[in-house]
Amino acid sequence: MPRATARRRWSLTRYFGVVSFLAMLALGVALIWMTGRVMQEQSVRDGTQSATSVMSYAAAPLPTHAFAEGLLTDAQVTAIETSTMGFGSRIVELRLWSTAGVLMYSADATGGAFPDTERLNGVLASGSADARVLDDVNQVDAAGTGATIQEVLDVYVPVGARDAQDLSGIEIGSPLPSRPRSRRARSTRSSVWPR
User: Fold this and answer.
1) In angstroms, what CA-CA distances link 187 with 30, 70, 180, 182, 184?
2) Most buried among 34, 146, 162, 169, by the most CB within 10 A?
3) What confidence tens digit (pLDDT) does each residue in 174-194 have?
């Protein structure tokens, strides 16, 4: 007698179980993806707010005209370092650019950086911060084992006239004087603070 070669059909219960499993798997993947995306967006918003705070501390000891000239005195560089030292390791790199794209200040001793001119011009024109997650590559780590890669939030923040003020004569480390907030002062942009 010939053997029956017909395949057995799945039972309704088995079919329901497989379809349910696949649907739950797809739903789980979608939830994980969506949660990760929302968390990344929130992190970028929080990082942008922190960068804005750092910018206000870095720009406070500088006169507004310094952003047009692009030159800082040794005392102004020291004042920037003193006013931002409380942020510690939360800042990977601090750079101040003039409105012409000249590097005015860099916490990095090499100082060999160029602005992303498209982002710089966009931030100066719009008056709002531009934040992007980038890979920061350090050439060699302390052990000499090779390059290290770290994700960082690179933020260009516009500096307004009210953010920069001439504090000459005020002792470094003393509390900064409060600044009046006027609508006109907020709309005047001087420069950009990235990363």
Assistant:
1) 42, 20, 14, 9, 5
2) 162
3) 444 554 443 333 333 344 555
